[in-house]
Design goal:
The protein has one domain: UDP N-Acetylglucosamine Acyltransferase, domain 1 (3 Solenoid). Strand 8 and strand 9 form a beta hairpin. It has six helices and 17 strands. The strands form four sheets. Strands 2-5-10-13-16 form a five-stranded parallel beta sheet, with helices on one face. A five-stranded parallel beta sheet has the order 3-6-11-14-17, with no helix packed on it. Strands 4-7-12-15 form a four-stranded parallel beta sheet, with no helix packed on it. The longest helix has 36 residues.
Length: 249
């Protein structure tokens, strides 16, 4: 297995062929996601008169709008199931860049980005966003409001009840260090509010009823105690920030 993976990493020809194969797989998954919408458009087309009147155009436009909404639902389910299958069995740990786990991670990450840019970015704060991450394997509590789809490797993510995650906040359960893919769990306690555009690193545990201010950066493996309020330090020189961090330590 190591030899084919080494060829994949070092040969441009093999890498290009593998990329084409992966894109074909993506096309099949997207085709399955689009199938209900295509069926709806075909049904609308059958009901149109041969002469395109204003009424016919209005009916077809409505059908197109409905087809997009149907795609959001079907795509949410199909893409999340595909990601779940690809990530099944991958556990927290340290994996070489040339490994089966790394290949699986790259493939499902590509699907995740497709889902994010085609669907998830259009359905913030909705049951579809929560459904997507639940199917992937995220443990999400009751009354959770997600305004961001940047929840990377969400099958390693646990979110308690009544949590709010602000727009474009990035919660990452992975990092790359010295040629290794490192996967770690992230836990967010109940009643916690995370503001917009925050970054939560791998291995972080945030307690219950915390407030994480917008643009905050939480370093990897940090444990934030219950009822903590964190704020980003804005507009200060690097040396000043380092001095503040050392004094807090």
């Amino acid at each position: 297995m190591k030899r084919p993976l080494s060829l994949l990493a070092n040969s441009e020809l093999v890498s290009a062929a593998a990329t084409c194969f992966i894109y074909l797989f993506y096309a099949i998954v997207l085709g399955a996601s689009l199938f209900p919408s295509i069926c709806l458009l075909a049904l609308c087309n059958q009901r149109l008169s041969p002469l395109w009147s204003a009424r016919s155009l209005a009916f077809f436009s409505l059908g197109c709008g409905c087809a997009i909404m149907v795609f959001f639902v079907s795509g949410t389910v199909v893409l999340s199931v595909a990601i779940r299958i690809l990530s099944f069995g991958i556990k927290p740990g340290k994996y070489p860049m040339v490994s089966v786990t790394m290949v699986r991670w790259l493939v499902y990450s590509g699907l995740y980005n497709l889902a994010g840019r085609l669907i998830l970015t259009n359905v913030p704060m909705s049951f579809l966003l929560n459904l997507f991450f639940r199917i992937i394997g995220a443990r999400i509590g009751k009354h959770v409001q997600l305004n961001s789809w940047f929840l990377n490797d969400a099958y390693l993510l646990t979110i308690g009840d009544n949590v709010v995650i602000g727009g474009k906040t990035d919660i990452s359960c992975h990092t790359f260090e010295k040629g290794f893919l490192i996967l770690k769990n992230v836990t967010i306690g109940s009643g916690t509010l995370i503001g917009q555009r925050c970054y939560v690193s791998p291995g972080v545990t945030i307690g219950d009823h915390c407030i994480i201010g917008q643009y905050a950066f939480i370093r990897k493996n940090t444990v934030v105690p219950d009822r903590t309020t964190l704020s980003a330090i804005a507009g200060l020189p690097v040396r000043t920030v380092a001095r503040i961090e050392k004094s807090e330590a």
